[in-house]
Design a protein that fits this description.
This protein is largely without helices or strands and about 30 residues long. The protein has no helix or strand.
Length: about 30
């Protein structure tokens, strides 16, 4: 998982997904 603090110029031209929410670390997908 990558955390961006803004939109890098390279990403404004490619398809991407954005998620917003709380990540508790309990679920396998939320663990870093």
């Amino acid at each position: 998982m990558k955390i961006f603090r803004g939109i890098p110029p390279a990403l404004d031209r490619v398809p991407c997904a954005l998620t917003v929410g709380n990540f508790d670390g309990v679920h396998r997908g939320h663990q870093l």
